[in-house]
Amino acid sequence: MGDLLLRVKDLYTHFYTFEGTVKALDGISLELKRAETLGLVGETGCGKSVTALSILGLIPCPPGKVEAAEIWFDGVDLLKLDKEEMRAIRGKKIAMIFQEPATALNPVFPVGEQTAEIIRIHKQVSKREGMQKAVEMFHLVGIPDPDRVSKKYPHELSGGMNQRVMIAAKLSSNPALLVADEPTTALDVTVQAQILQLMKGLVQRFRTAVIFITHDLGVVAEICDRVAVMYAGVIVESSKTRVLFENPRHPYTRSLLQAIPKLVERIDRLPVISGTVPSLINPPSGCRFHPRCSLADSPCKVEKPSPTSVEAEHWVSCFRYDQGD
Amino acid sequence: MSHNLPTLLQVNNLVKDFPIREGVFRRVAGSLRAVDRVTFSIDEGETLGLVGESGCGKTTVGRAILRLVEPTAGLVIFSGDDLLSLSPREMDERRTNMQVVMQDPISSLDPRMSIKDIVAEPFVAHGRLKGQALRDRVAALLEMVGMAPQHLWRYPHELSGGQRQRINIARAIALSPRFLVLDEPTSALDVSVQAQILNLLADLQRDMKLTYLFISHDLSVIKHVSHRIAIMYLGRVVEIGPVDEVYDNPAHPYTQTLLAAIPAIDLDRKRKRFLISGEMPSALTPPPGCHFHTRCPLVQETCRRVEPAKATIGKEHSASCHLLR
Ligand SMILES: Nc1ncnc2c1ncn2[C@@H]1O[C@H](COP(=O)(O)OP(=O)(O)O)[C@@H](O)[C@H]1O
Ligand SMILES: Nc1ncnc2c1ncn2[C@@H]1O[C@H](COP(=O)(O)OP(=O)(O)O)[C@@H](O)[C@H]1O
Ligand code: SF4
Ligand SMILES: [Mg+2]
Ligand SMILES: [Mg+2]
Predict the structure, then answer these.
(1) Tell me, what's the pLDDT at A203?
(2) Is the CB of B57 within 6 Å of ligand 3?
(3) Rounded-to-integer distance, Cα A202 and Cα A209, Å
(4) What residues sit around ligand 5, an ion, with C-beta below 5 angstroms?
(5) CB–CB of B164/B156 below 8 Å?
(6) Within 10 A of B287 (CB to CB), how many other CB atoms are there?
(7) How many CB atoms lie within 10 A of CB A289?
C-alpha cells in the first residue's frame, strides 16, 4: 500500500515500578494512511497517551520499556533510530499537540517569538523572516489581529487562543503526522467546535495524517476518518468512524456507547458496565475485558482474542462478538 | 412535569459582585459582576439544569443560593424562608436542608479522615447522632450510595474517582436534605463511571424526594437529568424553559449556537452548522447591551446598546433577545 504512513505492530510498553510491572500496552497494532485522521478513544488510563509516546520515542526508560515487532514510519523503522535521529524526525516529520497548550509554551517569551524559533529550527531563515512566517501561520489558524497577539505571553491568552498558537507552531514544519493528545478537552464547547473545524480544514489542506486522542466519542464522530477503541492497553475494535457508531461489535464498545447520555432519545436509567477498570499490574487473564463482559465464556478467561475481520476495515478482538443482539 | 407541585426555591434578581483587588496592599480597585440579576424557581422534586461555558457564573449562583458566598442583591426564598434575611446561625440550621456536591471529588474530602469519619461528620457537627445509632446510620448511607461496608475504614486516596464522588454524595444526603446543588458532579469522571453516578442521583431523587439544581457545562448530561433548564451567558440567564422544548426549539441565538456546537454521536441528528467565532468576554469588561452581541451571528444595532428584555416563547419558556420581541 503506497499510501501507508505508519504501521505499528505488536507494541508492548511496560513500566517497572515499586508496586510491580505496569503492563500498560499489551500488543497494540495499528496502521495509518497519509492524510488520514485516526481517533484513539477510551477511558482514562487505557493507554492512549502511552501509545502515542511510545511511537514518538518519548517514554522515559527506565521506568518504561518499549518493545514492538516494528514501528514503521514513512520508510524507516523508528525502533532502529538513535536519540538524535529520533529527535530530528519528531521536530520535522512528526509533531505533537497536547491538552494544555500553556504548559507546552514557554511562559517568559511572547508567543510570536516562540513560534518563530520553532520555525527557525526547520527552515534556515533569518529572525525577521521567522517572525513573518509566524504571523502568517497565526493568520492561517484564525488568530484575530495576529500582529498584536504575537507580542502576547501565553498567560495573557485564553486556552483556545494558546491552542491555536500551538497548532500554528507545530504545523509550520508541514509534518506528515500530527499527534494530538486531547487537544480540545480543556476547552468550552463553542471553542472546541472552532478548533475542531480549524484542524479539519488544515489537515485536509496540508494532507497531514493525524492520531487524534480523545475520551469523547462525540469528538471522534466530528473529526476522525477511522477510530480505534482502547480498553486496558488493548485495541478492542477498530473501523471507519461511521461504522463504529452504526455497527459496534465489541461488547465494551457497545456498553460504552450506551453509557453516554443521548441528545435524542430519552431514557431514565443509563445502562452501566459492571465492575471497574482493572489494575494493569495484575491485568485479567485472556481477554482483559472478560471480568466485566456479559458475553464472557470459558475461552475468554484463558486465551487472548486476536483481531478478527467483521467486514471491510472493521476489526474486533473478541471471541463472541457475534453472540450479542 | 410537576406543574402542580409547590415551589421549593425561588431566586429573584440574584446579583453577586466580587471585589477586584490590586497592588501590594490588595486594595479594592473595582468589582466584577459574576451573577447579574438571575431569576428562576425550582419545584419540589424537580431538577433544574444550569448550563453554560466556564466562567459564566454557574458555580457562583449555586454558592450564593446557599450563602456560601454572600449575594450582593436579590431574593432567595427557600420553602417560605427569605434566606438572605437570616442570621448566620439561622442560615446554618437551614443548611441541613440544602447541601452541595462539587466537581472535584478529591479536594472536597479531607485526606486525613477515614470514610467513616467523613460521612459521620455532618451528624457530629449538628450534634444529631452518636454511638451505635451513628455507626448504623453511616453504614446505611454507604449502602445507599452503593458502597460496600469495608470501605468505612479506608481513606480518600484509596478510592477511585467514582467512589469518592459516592462518598461526597453520602455526606451531602446524610442529614436528609430536601435540596442539593450538584456542581458538575460527573465532570471529572469517565463516561462509564458518570453513568453510574447519574443513575445513583436519579435513584436518590426518587427515594428521598430530592430537588436538584444540576450545574454542568455538558449539554448531553444536562439533557439527560433536567426537567427544565436555564442557559447562562456572562452572568445572565439568557433562556429558560422545559428541557425538551429548549432543545427542540431553542429561541436565543446563544442557545442555538451552543446546541450546534455539541460534538455528538447521534450522527443523523439534524442541525444547522452554526459556528460562532470568538470567546466569551471577561466578566471584568462585559460588553454593553446584550452580553452576547460581540459573538452573535444575528446582531442588530440595538443589541449593542440596549439590554434585551425577557420575551415569552411558550408556557414556562422565555428568552432575552431583541429578535424575539
Ligand atoms: N511513567 C509511568 N510510570 C508508571 N506507569 C505509567 C507511566 N505512564 C503511564 N503509566 C500507566 O500506563 C497506563 C496508561 O496510561 P495513559 O496512556 O496515560 O492513559 P490514557 O489513556 O488516559 O492516556 C496507566 O495505567 C498509567 O498509570
Ligand atoms: N472568589 C472570587 N473572586 C473573584 N472573582 C470570582 C470569584 N469566584 C468566581 N469569580 C469570577 O466570577 C465569574 C463566574 O465564575 P464561576 O461562577 O466560577 O463560573 P462557572 O462556574 O460558570 O465556571 C468568573 O469570571 C470568575 O472568574
Ligand atoms: S439580542 Fe441581539 S446580540 Fe443578543 S442574542 Fe439577540 S440578536 Fe444576538
Ligand atoms: Mg492521556
Ligand atoms: Mg463552575
Answers:
(1) 94
(2) no
(3) 11
(4) B 59
(5) yes
(6) 14
(7) 25
Q: Is domain A4-93+175-316 given the CATH code 3.40.50.300 in the classification? A: yes
What is the residue whose three cell numbers read 477511585? Answer: B160
pLDDT at B249: 94
Task: Say how far apart CA B108 and CA B131 lie, in whole Å.
Answer: 26
C-alpha cell read off for A324:
450479542
Mean predicted confidence (pLDDT) in B9-15? 98
At B54 the three-state DSSP class reads: coil
User: How many beta-carbon pairs under 8 angstroms link A with B?
Assistant: 109
Cβ pair A137, A166 in contact under 8 A: no
Evaluated on CA atoms A45, A51, A56, A61, the torsion sign reads positive
For B171-229, the pLDDT digits (tens) are: 999 999 999 999 999 998 999 999 999 999 999 999 999 999 999 999 999 999 999 99
Q: Which residue of B has its CA nearest to A242?
A: B267
Residue A144, C-beta contacts closer than 8 angstroms, at least 6 positions apart:
B278
Residue B190's closest CA among A41, A243, A223?
A41
Check residue B227 and give its pLDDT. 97
Could you state, in order of their start, the residue ranges of all structural domains in chain A? 4-93+175-316, 104-174
Residue B325 has pLDDT above 90, yes or no: no
Proportion of chain A in helix, strand, coil states, percent, rounded to 5: 40, 25, 40
- What's the mean per-residue pLDDT of chain B? 92
Domains and CATH numbers, chain B: 7-324 (3.40.50.300)
Around B63, how many Cα atoms within 13 Å sit in the side-chain half-sphere? 15
The predicted-structure confidence for A198-218, as pLDDT tens digits, reads as follows 999 999 999 999 999 999 999
State the pLDDT confidence band at B270, using cuts at 50, 70 and 90: very low
Which stretches in chain A have pLDDT values below 50?
none
C-alpha cell at B304: 449593542
What CA–CA distances, in Å, run from A255 to A322, B140, B197? 15, 30, 16
Assess B192–A contact: CB distance below 8 Å, yes or no.
yes
H-helix segments, A40-107: 48-55, 83-92, 101-104
Q: Which of A187, A245, A260 to mutate to test the interface with B (most CBs of B within 10 A)?
A: A260
